[in-house]
Amino acid sequence: MPEYKNPTPTVDILILKDDHIVLIKRKNPPHGWAIPGGFVDEGESVEHAAIREAKEETGLDVHLTSLFYVYSDPSRDSRQHTMSTVFTATADGLPNGDDDAEIAQYFPLSNLPSPMAFDHATIIADYLEFCKTGKQPELQRALKRMRKA
Question: For residue 12, which of 58, 79, 75, 78 has the smallest C-alpha distance?
Fold first, then answer.
């Protein structure tokens, strides 16, 4: 039987409140600040995984508000090829880091910490651009990469 090397499904959740976003400081490599998220378990929908991961890492019960975009660049995660479904969400209360998160807290969208892990700085920049223009810039970058190949 052939061995297939397919991307691993993950989720990321942009938890937003006013002009702030919840970020976590990762306990495990790759270190840095990140959007809450993680791997989708077998038999689990991406929506359920997003709600579960947000709860595990931040202690927040989130309300998913939209599907933002799917990020699949093979180099987005240095550990393996992942494909992340990114959601926007709201939540009440204050986040508390747990599970893979050393710290979880709100940051102003205009003043994000660094370094950011994975491609999460790009995801947040794309979200801010989308809020301004209604365009999903990642799609434009992906199409440019395809044309060059």
Answer: 58
Among 21, 114, 25, 123, smallest CA distance to 62 is for: 21
For the chain, domains (ranges, CATH) are: 8-148 (3.90.79.10)
Residue 149 buriedness (CB in 10 A; 0-12 / 13-18 / 19+): exposed
Taking the alpha carbons at both ends of the chain, their separation in whole angstroms is 31
85-114 pLDDT, tens digit each: 999 999 999 999 998 899 999 999 999 999
Tens-place pLDDT, residues 47-99: 999 999 999 999 999 999 999 999 998 989 999 999 999 999 999 999 999 98
